[in-house]
Every structure is written in C-alpha cells, then in structure tokens.
Amino acid sequence: MTQIADKVLTTEQVVARFKELASQEKWFEIQDELFAEEVRSIEPERSVYMQDATGKAAVRKKAEDFVSRIEAVHRVYTSTPIVTGNHIAVARETDITVKPHGRVQLNEIMLYEVKDGQIILEQFFY
Length: 126
Description:
Blueprint: E1 3-4, E2 7-8, H1 11-22, H2 27-34, E3 35-42, E4 53-54, H3 56-68, E5 70-78, E6 82-84, E7 87-98, E8 102-115, E9 118-125
Pfam family, one: SnoaL_5
Domain SnoaL-like: 9-126
Protein name: Nuclear transport factor 2 family protein
C-alpha cells in the first residue's frame, strides 16, 4: 500500500501525486510510487504498439521497451485527471516517432483504478 506516515493514501491523495508527476512527464516515478505489485496494464485488443502486462516488474518492462523505441517526441499533452470514486481518467495526446512504426499520433484515454491507496489497473483506449 502507498502510505504517508503509516496511513493508506486516499484516492484524492493518489490523484494529487499522479497529477504532480504526470505534469512533469515522470511516468516511471508514477509506477514506482503509486502502482501495486500486482498492477495490470491493458492495451486495446488489437494494439500493434504494446501488449498487456501483469505485475509491477512486467508493467515497468513493457513501458521501458516502448520508450526505448521512441526516436523523437514532437508533442505531448496530458489533461487534468478526472476522478470518480476509485477511478482516474486522463486524456493523453502524443505525436512521436517510434520504431518500427514511424511517426505516430495517439489520442487516448488512460483509465486507472485505485484500491487501498495504490493503482491496481491501468487501461488504455486509443
């Protein structure tokens, strides 16, 4: 569990930290600090960019593998998170050049689920 002074974070506290780190493009820090050990990462069914992963280490490797293929970042935008209950939704727009796909523009919704002060699910819609 993500904790502050032995207290489990509320969803609002998780969102505040998520927002702070996302605004600085610190996505690996989000994983390190806020993801549960058994987090699941789900891509769209026919994604050519990445596959689903389960477990903090596997989700980290998935992200590192993708980032290692990025040749150029032309533009990124992340919206302010929208929170309802234990869910966080974020709009993300990226314009990148990535091997082997070339220049790719992704407009996606990133959905996160929080339980016991940790993100247990990230799911991407693009």
